[in-house]
Amino acid sequence: MSGFVDKLLSRNPNSASTAKERLQLVLIHDRTDLTPTQLDTLRNELIDVISKYVNIDRQAVRINMSQEGREQRLIADIPLKSATKRR
Amino acid sequence: MTARVVTFSSGKGGVGKTTTTANLAVALASTNQRVVCIDGDIGLRNLDVVMGLENRIVYDLVDVIEGRCRVRQAMIRDKRYENLFLIPAAQTRDKTAVSPSDMVRLCNELRPEFDWILIDSPAGIERGFRNAIAPADIVVVVTNPEVSALRDADRIIGLVEAEEKGPARLVINRLNAAMVKRGEMLDTNDVLELLAIELLGIVPEDEQVIISTNRGQPVALDDKSKAGKAFQNIARRLNGEDVPYLPLDGGNNFFNKIGKMFKPGGN
Asked: pTM to 2 decimals?
């Protein structure tokens, strides 16, 4: 019954959705053998390399792991700073 | 006859591999097919007690592999079905007593005489698991709808793919419909989305499983039990039948609730 009251007052998301979110993250790292720290390092090094050639906004770079079936995909969204604006 | 070899695996222990193996063996045998199960859990044998055949063991899997007896001598005939057999695991040895190629050789010897060879894999991802999947035509991953079991199942699915034994198929065991309804247990869709493999069956949590295992009688023999029915359906799907999934509302729709008010403790 208290679970029902909690739900009404939306005190807590139900535990099944918490489990799902946690598993989604854990499985990505298990499947790729890549820890969150390593992914962070990868992100920074990638930004460094790209910055050598084009001007980018470090804060706007998004690098995420996505899943299609059992296939993992590394997706990078790197907005370029407009070259004309700097002139 | 050329048997299909099905291996039941899970990574994590205690999710119901042995129960699933025993019940599918019985369910397949009840349709007059010739079935042999092999307990791959050397050192921790259990398929014999779950099937109620523990008093009949003379020889075991390692005796066969090491040539102390012929395969036939190690096959225990089931009490209920004369077309069902068990090759028990050795209890006093460990997994290194058998190699993956031994298992392939053994299954090739058995294939012509059976419709189904079911292998109960031990927990873990080491030698025992490798032995169990080496001869497999189909790998069935058994899991429970909880985080640790699902994480290990995902790992097993990956390893099965890497060994080119995939795609594995999934049995979700011990699903508690009432908890799903309350949002306190992952439901079938969540599990399939996370693991991204094909479903073979859903077995509801059912205390009848423990009761029948206490007696050494697999629950699939009991038509009235929900879990037993679910195992029978899985067996039919293995046979290629298109069987709809049981409604898993746990009798919790409006009318059943009203009914329950008048029948306390019902269902």
From this structure: 0.86
